[in-house]
Amino acid sequence: MFDQHAGITPGGEECTTLAYADYSECPESQRMPDGGVIDMDCIIWTYVTECETLPDTQGLVIPLDGVQVLMRQLFTVRQAITDINGYFSTDYVRGKARYVVQ
Q: So which domain of life are we looking at (predicted)?
């Protein structure tokens, strides 16, 4: 639950990892007309992680402990109880589902 009038929630950090492919080591015989290669083993991958500091938000996230959560998907209804951190888990869900906190 989020209470927009209580406290301040720290923004934290959001990171994204980008992958870049280097085809320069691939022989011409392995290259395709569209720029790809036939043998993927010659590609050299470089991974770059970029992080951004998010701003603080007015308000506070309050975990709801011991609350019943109902999940509905078409004709199926499942239930779960939240833990001390406000998290819960259910069985496998395919597609969209609606959640109700009781």
A: Bacteria
